[in-house]
Amino acid sequence: MFFSIIIPLYNRPVEIKELLVSLTQQRYSNFEVIIVEDGSSKPAEDIVARFKGQLDVHYYYKENEGQGFARNYGFERAKGDYFIVFDSDILVPADYLDHVLKGLQRDGWDAFGGPDAAHASFTAVQKAISYSMTSPFTTGGIRGNKKHVGQFHPRSFNLGISRQVWEKTRGFKLSRRSEDIEFSIRMINAGFKVGLIPEAFVYHKRRANFSQFYQQTYQFGKGRIDIYKMYPSELKPVHALPAVFVIGLVALLMINVINLLTMNEIQLFNALGWLGNAFLGLYTFLLFLHALFVCKNLGVAILAVIAAYTQLIAYGSGFLSQYATLILSNKNNKKLTV
């Protein structure tokens, strides 16, 4: 089986070099690599050219349109039986393609996704963010894995489709923000067999600091409402939990301020404050213990708590903002039409 690996690239010359190095170590060698530079101001053509003798690699530069359309550009030029999409900020284990091949032969997926993990070389913040993005204590519990709520939707940092899927769907319809969820839903609705290959994981760097992480997950929250506008049945109560968390935090802060100003004289607010603070404290403690168990590092576990709060607040805030914009105000967004 011949694989085409498509990687959209935007101003990440260092990351693409590390990714390509990891691809040179693949045990299964029947693949090509297609790099689509999406209008970068820091192009990586010279870096990619260094791998010509080690990989069957092809480099293309196009105007910036977003990662979804950059992937389509790569699909149009791919020769493989299956197209595999990676984000540029990942590292690929040497046995990745072996696991993909075995998974496809075992389960017969038309399209698949794989999980992600933190590499030993990642910074403490990157490891903390990786924990938060995969934790059952955060939105990681409603993302792509076997146990998450509803139908599994592959994510574009580690996604594969057959040539038949591409020919029927023509790839991504959205250029950015939740474009992978929309694509997954459309593949499933078209009758294709879509699932997870749990052994086919990648090491995903994600964001380098909490500010970038906040901005990213804020967009994820907005994207969930975008998907709801296109596919109303895809919005489940569990998707609103981060928004409920944000509303609860704001309410608890107000209650605590009132209790402080009134010296706890209002019995109802006093009781609500005690219950709210106890619940939040218990949640934080359990989150920390789980992070410590998973990460096996005290410093990373502490940062993981910060990452989890950052993720929940950002996702919930984005969800509420887009809900108010598109639902409460009944605003029509033509860009979301499929």
Automatic annotation (TrEMBL):
Source species, domain of life: Bacteria
Q: Give the matching Pfam families.
A: Glycos_transf_2 (PF00535)
Instruction: Give the transmembrane region(s).
Output: 240-262, 274-294, 300-328
Annotated Glycosyltransferase 2-like domain residues? 4-126
GO MF term (any one): transferase activity
What are the protein's UniProt keywords?
Answer: Membrane, Transferase, Transmembrane, Transmembrane helix
Annotated protein name in UniProt: Glycosyltransferase
Q: Please give the organism.
A: Sphingobacterium humi
